[in-house]
Amino acid sequence: MGDRFLLNLACSYCGKMGTGVYYAPTCDVYDFVCKDCKRHNFVSADFTVKAVEDVTLEDVVSAFEMASNSYHSQASVKRAAAGYLRGLKRHGRAEAGR
Predict the structure, then answer these.
(1) Which of 9, 16, 23, 50 could cross-link with 36 by S-S, CB 3.0 to 4.6 Å?
(2) Predicted confidence (pLDDT) per residue in 6-62, tens digit
(3) Rounded CA separation 5/24 (Å)
(4) DSSP string for 3-36
(5) What's the whole-model pTM score?
(6) pLDDT attached to residue 9
(7) DSSP secondary structure letters along 21-75
């Protein structure tokens, strides 16, 4: 059981304010779906909301490192972050095609 937050965040696509956005970085919850436009948004380690297509590997690595409560090698973190980022981008492309 780690940190969990309910945040008020604006969607990076439509700008609508989402209230009670669930964010739990220690449980691998780094993104949310806007209730209005139904698009995925990424929440960075500094609580900046980014459109999926703007998320970089460095953003995901920072989020993973902030959330981790144990040591992982840099190579291991980068591999995990790259896999997460691929899945996030895949969802973003699918949503954009709707």
Answers:
(1) 16
(2) 899 999 999 999 888 888 877 777 889 999 999 989 998 888 899 989 999 888 888
(3) 6
(4) --EEEEEE-TTT-PEEEEEEEBGGGTB-EEE-TT
(5) 0.77
(6) 94
(7) EEEBGGGTB-EEE-TTT--EEEE-TTS-EEEGGG--HHHHHHHHHHH-SS---HH
- Which helix (DSSP H) or strand (DSSP E) does residue 81 occupy? helix 74-96
Contact 31, 40 (CB under 8 A): yes
Interatomic CA distance for residues 34 and 49, integer angstroms: 11
In the predicted model, is pLDDT for residue 95 greater than 70? no
37 closest CA partner among 54, 55, 17: 17
Q: Which two tokens stand for residue 39?
A: 């698009």
